[in-house]
Each structure stands twice: as structure tokens, then as C-alpha cells.
Backbone:
């Protein structure tokens, strides 16, 4: 029957495009992570709205259709949307001086050991430049008191 063949093709296309869509969230996540402008060019409102829609799709797949394939695609979409929205919110907060990530995860703009052309000297220059510019004794962080000044801090 022709209709059965068409439904199989449609099902296969749905699966392939779903996988490609979920994998493609990686490019947006990478762009947000590397943003040096607080992800100002990313619409937090839209990614939040898509996150809500994807969550509703997860619930619909689970409780209405009971379709495992649809549920997996919906979970992948929801995860991607929430990651982009959350990272965008974190980048916006950091751009305003609010530190939300641990120190080691904040500096996507610094050369990484696995990035092209990153040598130990380049890594050291990047960390030195960062600490010198911020006045901090911790890369990207606030000035942390040394042992000599800790005794004078009132911790009540």
C-alpha cells in the first residue's frame, strides 16, 4: 500500500531531522559559551519560550501519545533549549559582574589547552593578562586576602 510506504518515509524523516536538530543545539551552545558580549545577540525571551514549548512537548509525548521516539526527540529539544537559555542568562549576569560559574568554567575567552595554537606560554600570558587587568590574584575572580590579611578580617 502506498500510504504505508509514505508513512515509513515520513517517520524516517522525522527521526533524522529530530536528531539533526538536537545535535545542532551544540552550535548555539558553543556560540553562547564563547560570547564576550554577555550573549547580547541571543534572545533570552525566545529561548525561554522554546524551553516552555519543549517541556510541554515532553509531557504530551509521555502522557498523551506514549510514543518513545517522540518523547526522546522532545527530551533532546527541551535539553537543548534549556541549556541555551541557562547559559545565556549566566553570560548576561556575568556581563553585569555577577559570578555564577566556578572560576575554572568562566573563561571561555582565554586560550584552552585543547584550542588551536595554545601553548603553555600562551596560556600563561592569557592568565597573567586577566589577573593584571582585573587586579585580582585569582584569574577572573575578586582579590582574595592572603594569609597576612586574613587575621584582620572580622567574620562575625
Residues:
Amino acid at each position: 500500500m502506498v500510504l504505508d510506504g509514505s508513512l515509513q518515509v515520513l517517520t524516517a524523516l522525522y527521526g533524522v531531522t529530530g536528531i539533526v536538530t538536537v545535535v545542532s543545539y551544540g552550535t548555539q551552545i558553543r556560540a553562547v559559551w564563547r560570547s564576550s558580549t554577555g550573549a547580547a545577540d541571543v534572545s533570552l525571551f525566545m529561548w525561554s519560550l522554546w524551553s516552555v514549548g519543549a517541556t510541554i512537548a515532553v509531557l504530551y509525548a509521555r502522557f498523551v501519545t506514549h510514543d518513545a521516539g517522540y518523547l526522546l526527540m522532545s527530551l533532546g529539544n527541551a535539553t537543548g533549549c534549556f541549556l541555551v537559555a541557562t547559559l545565556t542568562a549566566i553570560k548576561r549576569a556575568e556581563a553585569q559582574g555577577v559570578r555564577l560559574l566556578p572560576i575554572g568554567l568562566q573563561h571561555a575567552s582565554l586560550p584552552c589547552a585543547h584550542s588551536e595554537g595554545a601553548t603553555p606560554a600562551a596560556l600563561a600570558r592569557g592568565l597573567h593578562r586577566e589577573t593584571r587587568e582585573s587586579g585580582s590574584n585569582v584569574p577572573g575572580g575578586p582579590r582574595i586576602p592572603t594569609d597576612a590579611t586574613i587575621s584582620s578580617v572580622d567574620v562575625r
About this structure: Residues 11-100 form a domain with the Monooxygenase fold (CATH 1.20.1280.290). Residues 107-115, 127-132, 144-156 have pLDDT under 50 and may be disordered. The helical segments are 2-34, 44-65, 68-95, 120-134, 147-150.
